[in-house]
Amino acid sequence: MAEFIGNQLGQFRELDLEAGRHSWGSARRIQVGLDIQKPLRRVLKLRTLLGAESLISFTYERLPNFCYWCKQLGYITKFCECKLEPRFNEKQDPLSFSPWLRATTLAGLRS
Fold it and tell me: Where is the Zinc knuckle CX2CX4HX4C domain (predicted)?
């Protein structure tokens, strides 16, 4: 399942089995290669064979500069060009991403 989910985000690389001892609830730590030209995903909807749906939310470790408005890596929200567009309205365009996207590293996990 970890490999399937990782491949939905990008290219699955590794499931950190050591992190399982430190995870909370059903959280798992996986390593995924991401295409930084594409926006990050915050959730993935999965449907079982019986039709039940589940949402899986993601946080990212070692997240570099990231724009919470346009979901792109490489610059911060303060410098986002989409905020300069005439159609942009901060009050009407709520953030779908925020600092919760950055995972906190648990003590004892390997880097």
Answer: 34-81
